[in-house]
């Protein structure tokens, strides 16, 4: 055995020890609930939209809202669906996307102590209070639909000074890179609320972009631009075509999936779901890059590297404090995929003081990745309750948010809220509610953080 081999084995053993140590955290499931409709009806949201999309799905379809969630106050949250009900097969030339207008929902969770004497310590009964559509005050670029078997991509609801973003994949300017902020296509994956409560930051996979929207009106007010290496130069309405036609940039449909805002409100942290094309081609197949952005100036300040352990990608990140994030690394297995969930784990990562990899190619960057410790094994915790099996745990665990502190047996307990993206298919395989919009509430104490400190986000303004 060579010296380098011995060193590598010792390093792997140390990683295993660190992860095992992190797994000893006594994070517990406190509550779980589902959301199947609103006052507008079963499977309907409060957008007020009528009619059907190109694929025959109602324009006000409720679903996918666990792509990203963020806490507001008391037990109120905001939740963002992704680009729409494209899991319904109808037109492969546009990746089965449609003119679903992007939106976010305001949800009251109705968290209550369970006094029944059995079951989990708390109950939740989610209720949608409002649906907010996302738009731009300046004109956007929509596809004509020519040669694709669909009509024009501009929503009928557009009018002067309000142009709606949609999930349709051909809504772009083919003469520009994917960094063109005039493109109407938007695939939201992360949402965070500003400290003053007036804005939401939403990350996107198409550009990838990070946009700031007025929370009350849903109007875009600002763009945070990522480095050019995250953009692809040749755009296509089919993701696989876009990947094969480019040598650099984000992988199609796997752009900025994770978004965090530090508790002081000063720094955005954005992580891609999969390796950049140039990193993948260079053999750095487990490398994910993430950047920090100064909110005041809009400038990208650092870029860091994160190496996947067993998951196929990262679906969300959230700031534990101003120096550390939690990272949701998962596979795509479980309910909705017709398989058994195996790997859905949340890691703790310190990014401040880590090596900046902005100027490093993939192989070098992966050697300078941030260290991580296991904080929560979702599959293990859920199956240990006997309420879930590996086949009933949602495949797409994608939303993370800290919520209100609670008392559990007289102990002050922090809450971590986890949501799924059900691809708008809560009637999966024809069985009613077999894959609903679901929320899980996990509880943890300061002693579960391995020396880290949880810092709630500072709130300074309107939280209604």
Automatic annotation (TrEMBL):
Q: Tell me the domain of life.
A: Bacteria
- Location of the Phytase-like domain: 61-424
Q: Which Pfam families match?
A: Phytase-like (PF13449)
Asked if the keyword Signal belongs to this entry, the reply reads yes
Its keywords, alphabetically, are:
Signal
Where does the secretion signal sit in this chain? 1-25
**UniProt feature coiled coil, ranges:** none
Write down what this protein is called.
Esterase-like activity of phytase family protein
Could you read off the lineage of the organism from its UniProt record? Answer: Bacteria, Pseudomonadati, Acidobacteriota, Terriglobia, Terriglobales
């Amino acid at each position: 055995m060579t010296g380098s081999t011995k060193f590598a084995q010792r390093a792997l053993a140390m990683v295993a020890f660190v992860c095992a140590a992190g797994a000893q955290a006594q994070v517990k499931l406190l509550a779980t609930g589902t959301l199947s409709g609103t006052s507008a009806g079963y499977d309907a949201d409060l957008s007020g939209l009528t009619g059907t999309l190109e694929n025959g799905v109602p324009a006000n379809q409720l679903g996918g809202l666990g792509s990203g969630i963020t806490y507001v106050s008391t037990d109120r949250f905001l939740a963002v669906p992704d680009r729409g009900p494209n899991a319904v097969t109808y037109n492969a030339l546009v990746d089965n996307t449609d003119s679903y207008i992007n939106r976010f929902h305001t949800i009251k969770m109705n968290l209550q102590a369970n006094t029944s004497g059995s079951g989990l310590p708390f109950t939740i009964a989610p209720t949608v209070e409002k649906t907010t559509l996302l738009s731009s005050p300046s004109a956007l670029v929509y596809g004509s639909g020519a040669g694709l078997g669909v009509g024009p991509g501009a929503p009928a609801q557009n009018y002067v000074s309000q142009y709606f973003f949609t999930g349709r994949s051909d809504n772009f300017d083919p003469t520009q890179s994917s960094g063109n902020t005039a493109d109407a296509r938007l695939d939201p994956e992360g949402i965070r609320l500003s400290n003053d409560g007036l804005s939401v930051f939403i990350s996107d996979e198409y550009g990838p972009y990070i946009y700031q929207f007025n929370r009350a009106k849903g109007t875009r007010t600002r763009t945070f631009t990522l480095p050019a290496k995250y953009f692809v130069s040749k755009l296509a309405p089919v993701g696989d075509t876009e990947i094969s036609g480019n040598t650099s940039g984000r992988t199609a449909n796997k752009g900025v999936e994770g978004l965090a805002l530090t508790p002081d409100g000063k720094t955005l942290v954005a992580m891609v779901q999969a390796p950049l094309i140039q990193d993948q081609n260079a053999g750095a197949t487990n490398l994910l890059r993430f950047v920090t952005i100064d909110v005041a100036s809009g400038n990208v300040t650092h870029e860091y590297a994160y190496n996947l352990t067993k998951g196929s990608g990262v679906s969300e990140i959230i700031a534990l404090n101003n120096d550390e994030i939690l990272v949701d690394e998962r596979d795509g297995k479980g309910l909705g995929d017709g398989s058994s969930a195996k790997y859905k784990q949340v890691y703790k990562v310190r990014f401040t003081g880590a090596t900046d990899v902005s100027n490093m190619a993939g192989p070098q960057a992966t050697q300078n990745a941030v260290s991580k410790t296991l904080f929560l094994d979702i599959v293990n915790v859920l199956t240990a309750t006997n309420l879930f099996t590996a086949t009933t745990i949602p495949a797409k665990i994608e939303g993370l948010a800290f919520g209100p502190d609670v008392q559990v047996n007289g102990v002050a307990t922090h809450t971590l809220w986890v949501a799924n993206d059900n691809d708008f298919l809560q009637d999966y395989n024809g069985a009613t509610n077999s894959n609903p919009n679901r929320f899980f509430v996990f509880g943890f104490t300061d002693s579960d953080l391995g020396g880290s400190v949880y810092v709630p986000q500072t709130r300074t303004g309107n939280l209604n």
